[in-house]
Design goal:
The structure is a homodimer of 424-residue chains. Chain A is built from 13 helices and 13 strands. Chain A is an alpha/beta fold and 424 residues long. The interface between A and B is large, with 54 and 54 residues.
Amino acid sequence: MKKYSEFSKSELLSEKEALEKQYKEYKDRGLKLDLSRGKPNSDQLDVSQAILSLPSSREKCFSKSGLDCRNYGVLDGLPEMKRLFADMLGIKEEYVTVGGNSSLQLMYDTIARAMIFGVEGSVRPWCMEEKKKWICVTPGYDRHFKMTEVFGFELLSVKMTETGPDMDEVERLVLDPSVKGIWCVPKYSNPTGNTYSDETVRRLASMKCAAPDFRIMWDNAYAVHDLGEEGDKLLDIFAEAEKCGNLDRIFYFTSTSKITFPGGGVSMLACSVANQKQISKYLGVQTIGYDKINQLRHTEYFADSEAVHSHMMKLGELIGKKFEITLSSLETLRGYGIAEWTEPRGGYFVSLNVLPGTAKRVYELMSEAGVVLTPVGATYPYGIDPKDENLRIAPTYPTDAELKTATEILALTVRLAAVESYLN
Amino acid sequence: MKKYSEFSKSELLSEKEALEKQYKEYKDRGLKLDLSRGKPNSDQLDVSQAILSLPSSREKCFSKSGLDCRNYGVLDGLPEMKRLFADMLGIKEEYVTVGGNSSLQLMYDTIARAMIFGVEGSVRPWCMEEKKKWICVTPGYDRHFKMTEVFGFELLSVKMTETGPDMDEVERLVLDPSVKGIWCVPKYSNPTGNTYSDETVRRLASMKCAAPDFRIMWDNAYAVHDLGEEGDKLLDIFAEAEKCGNLDRIFYFTSTSKITFPGGGVSMLACSVANQKQISKYLGVQTIGYDKINQLRHTEYFADSEAVHSHMMKLGELIGKKFEITLSSLETLRGYGIAEWTEPRGGYFVSLNVLPGTAKRVYELMSEAGVVLTPVGATYPYGIDPKDENLRIAPTYPTDAELKTATEILALTVRLAAVESYLN
C-alpha cells in the first residue's frame, strides 16, 4: 500500500473526492455520538449493582472490630478496607489511608495542604515559594495538569515514551530546586495506555532531586484494570524508593471509581509513615472521617483482592470488546503513513497520533459529523498540543454499535484531514 | 435552701465528708461511662436503618432527569437533593451546592480555598495577609476554633449571651480589617443550646465590616434538630443579608450527619451566586463530583422536608429523654449557688457552668470515678477556659441508665469541687 506522502497531486485529489463522498453519507445521518468521556457505560455499572444492597443487614454495619460504622469515628479508614487496597496494589497496609469517593479530591487536598503548610521536608509552605514548577508527562491527564496550573505551578512537559516518561529529561529537570513534583499514571497511562518499565520506576524512585520536598504523585488509577488475564506488571515504587531512602517522595493514589461506581466508590492515599504523621495534623482538622458505610459495602462485596480480580475480568470482557472495535477501525489507517496508535492491554483509553498539524481538523470534521472527541490539546499542559497531532479516544461510554460507527468516521476523517494537509 | 457561699466552715466540712462518702461509693463501682461525645447512640441510628437498603432498585439509581447516578457527572449536586436542603432550611435552592459526607470538610475546603486563592472580594489570598484574625463565640465548638487556629488565624473570643454572640463586641471587632470572619452555630448552639435572636441575625447580616472579604461561617448543624414540635425559630440570614447588600458575606453549612448517619450523610454549602461563581473555578479542579448515590438514598427516603420533620420527631423522642435525665440530675444542684446550666429545646448539648475555678477539678473527680467528660477548655479558643467554669455535657451517646448514673455523679462532683474551693 502506498503512503499518502507518496501520492501525486491528482491521486490526492481523487482520494479526497472519494473520502468526502463517504464523509457526506455519515454526516447526512445526523449522528450524535461521544468518544470524549472516560466513563463507563451503564452496562459496566450493572456488573456492580449488587453492592448497592449492602450492608446486607444491621449486623453488617459493624466493622470486624465491632465498631458501628453508621457513627462517627476512624479517621484513616477501616482496617478491612486498608487491607483490601494493600492486597490489590501489593503495598504495605501501614501506608494506606482510606479517603472519600474521589482520589482526585485526595490529590487536590494533598497539594492544597502542601500549598498552605508544606509537606514533610519543606522549608516553607509551597504558596510562599517565589517560583514553583511541576513536571507533566505528555500526552497525559488533563485534570492533573489543570490542577497544578490552578495552584500556580509552571508546567514543564516531558515526553511519554514506550517505557514511561523520558527519564533523561526528568532527571535533568529535577536538578532545579523549584521543581516540586511530577504527575504519573504509571499503569495503562491516560491516554497512552502504556505501563512504566521497571527501569523507569527505579529511576523515578532513585533520582537526585534538588528540592528537599519533591513529590511523585503516583496516580495508579488503572492498577487492576486489565482487559485479560495477561495484564501489564508494574514495579512497586515504595519498595524501590525505600531502598534509596526516598520513601517520603511517594504519594500513591487509587480508587474503586472504575471498579465499582465513579463517584460512588472509595479512594486511597498511600504514603510513608513520616508523610502520614505530617498530614495527620491537618487531616483531623479537615474532617471527622470519611464514609465508612461505603467502605463496608466494598469490603462485604469484595472478600479479597482475588474477588476484585474476578470482577475486573467481567468488566474486562465488556471493555475489551470496545477496544477491539476501536482498534479494528483504526486498523484501516495502516499503510497510509499518517497515523500511529497504542494498543493497550488495559485502562480506559487509546491514544491516536495523526499527521502533525491535522488533529484540530479531525476534531472539527468529527464535530460536524456529530461525534464529540476529547478537545485537542487537552492531553497537554495549558491545553496546547505543540504538534497538533494527539487525539485521546475514550471507547468505554458508547454502545458497541455507536462505537463502531464513531470509530469508522474517525478513521475516515483522519485520512481526509491528512489528504487536505498534503494538498495545501 | 442555703447557698454554699453562706455555709460556715464547719458546715462546709461536714458537707464535704458527706459528699466524699457518696463519691467513694460511686468510685468503688469501677464505672466506665462517657459524657464527652456529641454522637448518637446506636438506637438513634437504627431509626434510619432503612435508608441503607436504598436505592431500592436499578431504576432508582437514575435521577429525576434520567441521569445514571452510578456514573460521573453533576458537580454541584442533584436537583432533588438541593431542593430537599432548601426546603429544610427555608433558603433558596439556587444557593445550594451539595457536598460529600462531611460539612466540616466543606468548611475546611472553603477556608483552604480562601487561603490559597482568596474569596469573592479579596484583595489577596488569605495566606498572603500579614495578620489575620477570626472571631470565636465562646463557649463554642472546638473543631471550629482548632481549624482557624491551624490555618494561622489569631482567635478572638466573644461571649455567648442568651440571644447569641455579644453583638456590641462583634461590631467593634469587625472594624479591624484583619478580622476575616466569625464562626456561628446559630441554632441550638454547641454547647450552649441557645438560638440566635432575630435581632442578632439582623445585626450580623448588616454590620459594617472593615475587611471587604469578611465571612460568616454559618454552621446550622442543628437546623431541624428540635426535641419536640415547639422548636426554636431562626431568622433567614440570607434574606437579611440581601436587604443590606451583604449577601456574599454568608457561607451557610449543614448536613444530615445527625439526621441519618454521622459520616454516612450528605453535606451542603449554600452561598450567593457570586460566591458560587468564584468557588466553581476551583471546585471543578478539586473533584469530578460528590457521591450522588448517597444523595439518591436520602431523596428516596425523604420525600420532602415534612418527612425529615417526622423523622426528627422520632429522634427527638429518644434524645429528649436523655436531656430530661440530664436536667433532672442537674436540678439537684439548684439552690447551692454554684452552678448554672442551659435547658435547650433541641441540638445535642447541655452547657454547665460550675463555680469559677472548679471545672478542671470536676473533670478530674469525674475521671477518677470513671466518667469521661469533654476536656475543660475545649469549648474555648486555644483550649483555655479563662474562668475554668464551663463543662459541655453530651447526653446522646450513653444509654439512659448509664446517663442517669453519670449525671448523678456529675452533680455530686460539682458540689464536692465547690465545697473544696470554699474551704481553700
